[in-house]
Design goal:
single chain, 707 residues, alpha+beta, FAD/NAD(P)-binding domain, D-Amino Acid Oxidase, Chain A, domain 2, Gyrase A, domain 2, six-stranded mixed β-sheet, six-stranded antiparallel barrel, 23% helix, FAD-dep_OxRdtase
């Protein structure tokens, strides 16, 4: 009925529906600026078009593979059964049982029963003529649901089965749809991979796709559905896709915890310090395919090859150390069992010095005759600065929303080393967060092609490690082995230069690198961008010379806590494509001179005002917050926590939220500061203090080395 209504509406508004006409190929041409869609081929001839939406479900991957695009999608058999008539069930609620991974859905006087088994049948591929086909149900696979259903409701076993439904469904590595523009061909959009949730997501995702096509962007933050959340390497690796899609399927009914980690598809990409991290007993996390240290322990808990949870003839690992550590993080009503350990890392950063391995961060080099023109258009801040300066800036969309926040350093043509490249024209070194690395790269590249800038954009993420040393003692430690003056006069905050380090742990080897005086945690600190082959030597040398001054390792759990405590932003959480720099307190990143993408929207907000604003909320009670908790002002709901951490220096939970007026009007500082605030945590409201800026070091003296 839904499809019929939509097609009738389309025809009424001038659309055409052609049935029994399959698309055999997507036609593209190389324009010199990338591939461009020109039409589709059918058995009855070609159709010229500049826009195609791939909504072909289980066939979506195969359709676009022909022109070199890859979708992380795999078809699986998915089933349910319909019972005989059961007196009394009409009108009763549906049931989903998370322990048995089973559901009851009422259909008239019968019950439809199914679920997500641990051993689904993976398909390779689905025949082209199977669009209305069904498979015979494999009871050896489905029995797990039948057994669970009868334990849940013993009388269910008294009734027979009227029919079985087993069809092909498309599943993805994180159980979320694949949407948005194709990264290889301009004009192709995707809206597929719905993981058996098409009826639930179809209306909303269809609307957002339509807005994407018409306006160039959706009006909701869609990063978690955007296919650019996956990298090229992930999309091309069939084994990774199979493993992760299987785990997501099998865990579909599992509770979602903030710090849960996948077991499938691990060790996919390892940075140059991976072995060093394991030797230091790092508990590893995964982001966008990369392994990164979450925190450091006193024993090993290494990630093992995926055992498929014992399915398909695989044996479960006897070594459950990693899973045991992970289990202690799966909390809601209380702090993680690693809360104190992570606090020790965070406070070491505040009081002494720590080393963060940030090697998985996105690192790009933009170079060419139009590099300055491109930078002026792409970035909201003035990046035409001296080559000794690094600029924090935003990449905006047409409505002023933040598509990325990055640091940008203008380059001189150098020696040809990866950290000091040689080029013709001008060059820029761009660094962005690793969790959205490919999204940032694809966004910049698409805009470069759209505007026709004569530049290249190279991803050097895998070629450079990033070793960050942060804290009051960081300068004293680094100065002992680096070949440049680290004084405020020679290298002020946001300064950068090409220099070298003498590595005492590698027989005094001299290593060239790029040094940036920047901090993601609000401390005196430095990032060392080091060629991958020298990362271990530099890291070990910093550990050795820093030991007398109390240096220690710290992971991303501490880093995110410190960042939130300082009031810095984390893209896709408290900074999204539907948030502008003005709303986020980042107006300083938006220059007034010259044009850049999204400027008109920014200037309009500066003139007219804003209807939401980012604030910081602290709780005096020792209670954990996780994000998404409701925020109340004077008893009225005005927002929710976008991001939530524990601030160890503040010794209290801190969260970021965008606050708006209940009447939808413009908001000002008076409205924010005069309210009384509460945060709803698991159904109970706790009093909160609201701050326009984080209460930790609001004048940023520590970043300047003033303690």
């Amino acid at each position: 009925m839904l499809c019929t209504a939509l097609t009738r509406g389309a025809v009424k508004n001038g659309g055409k529906v052609i049935e029994n006409c399959n698309v055999t190929e997507v036609l593209v041409e190389d324009t010199g600026k990338g591939k461009q869609l020109i039409g589709v081929a059918t058995p009855y001839g070609n159709i010229k078009t500049k826009t195609v939406v791939n909504t072909t479900g289980v066939w979506g991957r195969d359709l676009v593979h022909k022109y070199g695009s890859h979708l992380p999608l795999i078809p699986m058999k998915h089933s349910y059964i319909v019972s005989e008539t059961i007196p009394g069930v009409r009108g009763i609620p549906n049931i989903r049982d998370h322990d048995y991974s089973t559901y009851f859905r009422i259909q008239g006087d019968a019950i439809c029963m199914g679920g997500y088994e641990p051993n689904p049948i993976l398909l390779e591929p689905v025949p082209d003529d199977f669009h209305f086909g069904l498979y015979d149900l494999d009871w050896t696979v489905f029995d797990v649901h039948l057994n669970g259903a009868m334990k849940l409701c013993p009388s269910y076993g008294d009734y027979g089965v009227k029919s079985t439904i087993c069809g092909p469904e498309s599943f993805t590595p994180d159980h979320k749809p694949l949407m948005g523009p194709d990264t290889q061909v301009n004009g192709v959009f995707h809206n597929c991979g719905f993981n058996s949730a098409g009826m639930m997501f179809g209306g909303g995702c269809g609307e957002q796709t339509a807005l994407w096509l018409i306006n160039g962007k959706p009006d909701l933050p869609m990063f978690s559905f955007d296919l650019r959340r996956f990298t090229k390497a992930q999309n091309r690796n069939t084994q990774w896709i199979r493993e992760r899609s299987h785990e997501s399927y099998a865990k579909n009914y599992s509770m979602v915890f903030k710090y849960d980690q996948p077991l499938a598809g691990r060790n996919f990409q390892k940075d140059p310090l991976h072995d060093d991290m394991l030797a230091q007993y790092a508990f590893m996390e995964e982001k966008q395919g990369w392994e990164r240290p979450g925190f450091f322990m006193k024993h090993k808990a290494e990630v093992l090859p995926y055992d498929w949870y014992g399915s398909y003839g695989h044996k479960r690992h006897n070594d459950r150390a990693y899973e045991d550590v992970l289990e202690r993080d799966l909390k809601y009503a209380e702090f993680s069992e690693h809360h104190k350990l992570i606090g020790e890392e965070a406070l070491a950063c505040r009081n002494a010095a720590v080393i963060f391995n940030m090697s998985y961060f996105c690192k790009l080099i933009m170079e060419g005759p139009d590099a300055q023109k491109a930078a002026d258009w792409l970035f909201s801040a003035n990046t035409n600065r001296d080559t000794s300066k690094t600029v924090y800036t935003c990449v905006l969309n047409n409505t002023g929303g933040v598509e990325a926040d990055v640091t940008v350093s203008r380059l001189d043509s150098g020696t040809g080393a990866v950290h000091d490249p040689t080029f013709t024209g001008q060059g820029y070194y761009i660094v962005a967060g690793g969790a959205s690395a490919y999204y940032t790269y694809a966004t910049l590249l698409a805009e470069i092609r759209e505007k026709g800038f004569n530049v290249s954009l190279r991803d050097v993420t895998a070629d450079l490690g990033v070793i960050s040393i942060q804290g009051p003692h960081s300068r004293d430690i680094l100065q002992r082995i680096i070949d440049c003056d680290l004084s405020n006069e020679n290298l002020p905050p946001n300064g950068t230069q090409v220099t070298s380090i003498k590595c005492p742990t590698a027989n005094g080897k001299q290593v060239g690198l790029r040094l940036l005086r920047v901090s993601f945690v609000g401390e005196l600190g430095y990032e060392l961008h080091v060629p991958k082959e020298h990362c271990s030597a530099v890291y070990q040398s910093l550990l050795a010379v820093g030991k007398p001054l109390g240096v220690r390792n710290a992971g991303y759990r501490a880093l995110y806590s410190l960042s939130s405590e300082k009031g810095y932003h984390l893209w896709s959480f408290d900074l999204r494509p539907d948030d502008t720099p003005i709303e986020a307190g980042l107006g300083f990143t938006c220059r007034k001179n010259g044009d850049y993408k999204g400027k008109s929207a920014i200037e309009r907000q500066r003139k007219e005002g804003i209807k939401k604003r980012l604030v910081y909320l602290t709780l005096n009670e020792q209670v954990p917050i996780w994000g998404l908790e409701g925020v109340y002002r004077n008893g009225e709901a005005v927002g929710f926590l976008r991001r939530a951490e524990y601030g160890y220096a503040l010794d209290k939970s801190i969260g970021q939220a965008y606050v708006s007026r209940t009447d939808g009007g413009f908001i000002n500082e008076k409205y924010i500061t005069e309210g009384t605030y509460e945060v709803d945590i698991l159904g109970k409201r706790y009093k909160a203090e609201c701050h326009l800026r984080s209460p930790f070091d609001p004048e940023s003296k520590r970043v300047m080395g003033i303690y």
